[in-house]
Amino acid sequence: MKSAAQILKSKPEQTVVTVTPATPVFDAVKLMAEKNIGALLVLEDQKIVGIITERDYARKIVLMGRSSKETPVREIMTFPVMYVRPDQSNEECMALMTDNRVRHLPVVDEGKLIGLVSIGDLVKDIISEQKFIIDQLEHYIRGDRG
Asked: What are the angstrom distances between the C-alpha of 101 and each of 27, 55, 68, 104, 119?
């Protein structure tokens, strides 16, 4: 089972896209669309103060009839933000996400943000690991012991 740090290293894009609490929600959603991502970390003075997701937008702007251009991210962001350490396993990350119904976890090392793992990253890793095991078993069953 891979660690959060190993999963981060395998991601093609490792940059964490962030906004500030004062960023208008419209700009945050536009940025998510441009980057094809579902969440942005909200940073203030290099510290994680929240996370804004497509779910936050749908539930706290659209359904409440608010203006995304006039509402700052701080008013709809989710906080506090759950995070994991780089040494935590895929299994631990998946359990945290499942138990708390979240889809993104920042990876923090000694108080410093080093990346963000999504449920998609974890599922991709699990599928890759299972494929490797299946391939190995198929080679064993066929007697390919080269």
From this structure: 25, 11, 24, 10, 10
pLDDT tens track for 56-79 = 999 999 889 999 999 999 999 999
Q: Which domains does the chain have, with CATH numbers?
A: 4-142 (3.10.580.10)
By CB neighbour count within 10 A (0-12 exposed, 13-18 middle, 19+ buried), where does 78 fall?
middle
Rounded to whole angstroms, how far apart are CA atoms 54 and 58? 6
**What DSSP character marks residue 89?**
B
Largest CA distance in the chain: 66
Sign of CA dihedral 134, 138, 143, 146: negative
Alpha helix (H) residue ranges in 3-118: 4-10, 25-35, 54-57, 90-100
What is the C-alpha to C-alpha distance for residues 39 and 37, in angstroms, rounded to an integer?
Answer: 6
What global pTM score does this model have? 0.84
